[in-house]
Amino acid sequence: xxxxxxxxxxxxxxxxxxxxxxxxxxxxxxxxxxxxxxxxxxxxxxxxxxxxxxxxxxxxxxxxxxxxxxxxxxxxxxxxxxxxxxxxxxxxxxxxxxxxxxxxxxxxxxxxxxxxxxxxxxxxxxxxxxxxxxxxxxxxxxxxxxxxxxxxxxxxxxxxxxxxxxxxxxxxxxxxxxxxxxxxxxxxxxxxxxxxxxxxxxxxxxxxxxxxxxxxxxxxxxxxxxxxxxxxxxxxxxxxxxxxxxxxxxxxxxxxxxxxxxxxxxxxxxxxxxxxxxxxxxxxxxxxxxxxxxxxxxxxxxxxxxxxxxxxxxxxxxxxxxxxxxxxxxxxxxxxxxxxxxxxxxxxxxxxxxxxxxxxxxxxxxxxxxxxxxxxxxxxxxxxxxxxxxxxxxxxxxxxxxxxxxxx
Length: 408
Hints:
This protein has twelve helices and twelve strands. By secondary structure, the chain is an alpha/beta fold. The strands form three sheets. It has a seven-stranded mixed sheet with strand order 2-8-7-6-5-3-4, sandwiched between helices. A three-stranded antiparallel sheet has the order 9-10-12. Strands 1-11 form a two-stranded parallel sheet. Strand 6, helix 7 and strand 7 (221-225) form a beta-alpha-beta unit. The chain is globular, with a radius of gyration of 22 Å.
């Protein structure tokens, strides 16, 4: 492939070991995992091994892992579970409360204003249809992250779920999930309030770049997306002790696979690939993290040397903690092109203007939420490096940007 690929937050290539695991599964574990004969048992063993690798990667127990088609399904499912849990609790309560306020009959969700659309649009739908109340806690401009006190202040008697991503896909800013969990779990719920506030984090962008441990985070639910860490385009959700400690209800029904939680004949080859990708992260994360940080910091150093005051690093502050691979940069000099114009003019650089699923004709709402001006947001590029990215790649990319943006 010609040029330099710098869009690893959008998707990653399959690691060679993952390709091998998928290929071997296609030829050796092709049986139906629900069958009791040799071919079926082989497929079932492949899935069991993969589940263990995924669990090890995030410090979980294997039964806490349920495979999904990807992150969007996982996020939708967890929001649906929370709404269903609230409705179940409501049906068990004494309806003679003497309070006719219909708002008390709706679940309340707390989220941030920088979430992925697979969270944001679901909650927007719930709110528009009168199915739930939603509070979007804004990130603070000084950090690009939510503040724990702001999250706590948003809690209501009907709050059932707090869902905040672990790391933002555009700025790379890491959110204080562990601190939120600790504070929320120390709260004592009063009579008439939801029995428990559950915590969910979408860890799509964090896994494979920084340590992710569900016990340290203190979450009840976590979303895993394979193609963000050199795995296939499937995913999984973590549910802490499903149906015992943490509610889990199926979104659909069928043959009973995944302990009846997620029925449908398992996609064994892709699950094998996801397991191998997780194993690689578990064994090599420190090396991956160190390499990406070194290359990303070199990128920002070179951009600053070439463009000086005409570059702004969105999300980078003295108080922010970022993913080691993510650089969101705005070129704000006189007559600078917009981000999508830069990319269309430089086909030798494969980067993005933000989330891959967002339109290019409007500034990123995430950058605006973090305090960027509309002028800067329109002129932003998200450059995300990967395991294979070298400093030579960075030199090439910076030279191409220099040739395009700095007038001779």
